[in-house]
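[step 3/7] fold_predict: job queued, chain A
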Amino acid sequence: MTNDQGQNFTPAPELPIELERETYLLFREFFDKAEKKRRWNINEDIPWDQCNRNLNPVIADVIETFTAVELYLPDYTSKILPLVRKSKGRAWFYANWGYEESKHSLALGDWLVKSGHRSEEYMADLERKVFAREWNLPQDNQLGMIAYAMVQEQATFLNYKKLQNRIEGMERDPALETLLSYVSVDEKSHFGFFRDCLRIYMKHDRDAVILQLRRVMNEFAMPVVHDLLDDSTRRIAEIQSLELFDSHIYFREVYLPVIRDLGITRQEMRTTIREKKSLKYP
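[step 4/7] structure written:
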């Protein structure tokens, strides 16, 4: 199987009918819960009149970085949906996921402008920079993409939640704090879906799942957009000083909890010498 860039992709193991149905039921549970408890309205549910124009500028720098990552949504959805179209549970999930992520992008961009930290012209220029570059799937295996998405969603959740906590210890910004609360809950829910998807696949081929988890989790890194945003060394250092995410946080709050939730041991997660020689790491 190849994508539109000619890259070879390994399909995920084809699930038996009963497990594929389980995947769909997992999506329906996710969707029904979202409809009942998680839906929020950008215009009505965020107190935009309480934006803090005097908030530390480094917070706006972080939000700009988050916004840039979210702007790659067309690439995320257009490249993954063709690869999962035979799985109604996963395909319908990605359609819903795209809707929720688009809302995150809109809300983050709205805060930057409404708070006065960025102008409309600046945001238009940011969009042009993002759209000039194309994002490609970081894994060559569909199971690897589920694993990558799971880890990425948990890492993103931590970034949003920790940023919310940092703001609460500063001069406060009720609008941004509310926004980050909604977004972080969404991201945590996305993580849960991908994790439970892997649990279903593990019933069918546990070794295949663990192989892809090793590839993803032992080499994981957050998307780098500093070059895109023309970030200076000073600005990068200021963002890092917030300590939202680093290798220690990743190991303690992503890696260990994930393998524990999936019932996988640290011994099983050790990459073999043969894998290091034969597997192509994106």
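[step 5/7] annotate
Residues 27-39+53-278 form a domain with the Ribonucleotide Reductase, subunit A fold (CATH 1.10.620.20).
The CA atoms of residues 5 and 18 lie 33 Å apart.
exit 0
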